[in-house]
């Protein structure tokens, strides 16, 4: 695997190659990321991965400074897996040589809800860096995890609106045996918090089961999950059922008609904010 830190070196490496299958990451790679790389490979060689902790998507009170940066470890993991042809690991001045005054603003009805409500500017930061990374790598396909469900939608819609020639592939969330979705932020959890953390997924599963069994009062189902989490000391940002197609709440008619749904949750355990989601599709 070649490791390059500049756009020029990346372009040198990619000269004469087919357009890549691309996996953008912020590093601190875990099994979830490695599985994205494997899926990228199935969509065609060469695979390009990137590691860049993107300041633009962090709020002023978020964990940009403490975000785990483990480049050497990440390189070793990727070398072992042998899926990646080039790792692009730019530093900040390579990606942002001047203040980023041109920015991609997702529409408020998608980028301003859920994560966008609790992390203002987050989807602007993600969209802007993803567009820049696409412009550096010029991939044919790019793989994103469903764990960041809204991010996946924002990126898909951006590609559609800007007619970017990149096919976005969704990868299922990778979980620990107890159901906790893998995330670089899980390492912030204390042992007690780690034991409690799978509760978020368990409640998403419970809600899914209730909807599949015919429950149609979303507000009551959401409130039951929120109350349960609060009782156990979580601080809940949202726990909500939305339509898959646009992440807006389903109407009572749509609940009856069986419109494809997704339950999404974000909540803090101690100082660690976890997000998760689960699709709910009735036959
Ligand atoms: O999901 C992530 O790791 C980041 O949001 C991404 C897509 C690499 C952009 O910085």
Can you give me a brief rundown of this structure?
With 283 residues, the protein is an alpha/beta fold. Helix content is 40%, strand content 19%.
Any overview of this molecule?
The chain is an alpha/beta fold. Helices cover 40% and strands 19% of the residues. Helix 7 crosses helix 8 and helix 10 runs antiparallel to helix 11. The termini are far apart. Pantoate binds next to strand 2 and helix 7. Pathway: Cofactor biosynthesis; (R)-pantothenate biosynthesis; (R)-pantothenate from (R)-pantoate and beta-alanine: step 1/1.
Strand order of the largest sheet: 1-4-3-2-5-6
Measured between the Cα atoms of the first and last residue, the distance is: 44 Å
Content of β-strand: 15-25%
Report the principal-axis shape. Answer: globular
Sheet/helix structural class: alpha/beta
The overall strand count is 9
**H/E element sequence:** EHEHEHEHHHHEHEHHHEHEE
Characterize the largest beta sheet: strand count, sense, and whether it forms a barrel.
6 strands, parallel
Radius of gyration: 19 Å
Mean pLDDT reading:
98
Helix amount, in percent? 25-40%
Oligomer: single chain
Number of helices: 12
List the ions, cofactors and other small molecules found in this model. Answer: pantoate
Low-confidence stretches: none
Binding site for ATP: 26-33, 145-148, 174, 182-185
Pathway: Cofactor biosynthesis; (R)-pantothenate biosynthesis; (R)-pantothenate from (R)-pantoate and beta-alanine: step 1/1
Catalytic activity: (R)-pantoate + beta-alanine + ATP = (R)-pantothenate + AMP + diphosphate + H(+)
Main location: cytoplasm
């Amino acid at each position: 695997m070649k490791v390059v830190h500049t756009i020029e070196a990346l372009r040198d490496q990619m000269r004469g190659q087919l357009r890549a299958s691309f996996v953008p990451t912020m590093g601190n790679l875990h099994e979830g990321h490695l599985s994205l790389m494997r899926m990228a490979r199935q969509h065609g060689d060469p695979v390009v991965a990137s590691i860049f902790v993107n300041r633009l998507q962090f709020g002023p009170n978020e964990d940009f400074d403490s975000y785990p940066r483990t480049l050497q470890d990440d390189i070793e993991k990727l070398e072992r897996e042998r899926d990646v042809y080039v790792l692009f690991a730019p530093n900040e001045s390579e990606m942002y040589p001047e203040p980023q005054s041109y920015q991609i603003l997702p529409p408020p009805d998608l980028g301003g809800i859920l994560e966008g409500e609790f992390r203002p500017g987050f989807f602007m930061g993600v969209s802007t860096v993803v567009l820049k990374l696409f412009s550096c790598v010029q991939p044919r396909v790019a793989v994103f995890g469903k764990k960041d469900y809204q991010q996946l939608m924002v990126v898909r819609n951006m590609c559609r609106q800007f007619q970017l020639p990149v096919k976005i592939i969704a990868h299922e969330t990778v979980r620990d045996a107890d159901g906790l979705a893998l995330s670089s932020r899980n390492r912030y959890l204390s042992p007690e918090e780690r034991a409690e953390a799978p509760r978020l997924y368990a409640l998403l599963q419970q809600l899914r089961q209730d909807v599949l069994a015919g429950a149609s009062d979303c507000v009551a189902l959401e409130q039951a999950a929120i109350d349960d989490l609060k009782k156990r000391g979580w601080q809940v940002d949202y726990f909500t059922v939305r339509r898959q197609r646009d992440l807006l709440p389903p109407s009572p008619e749509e609940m009856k008609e069986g419109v494809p749904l997704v339950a999404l949750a974000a909540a803090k355990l101690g100082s660690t904010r976890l997000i998760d989601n689960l699709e709910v599709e009735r036959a």
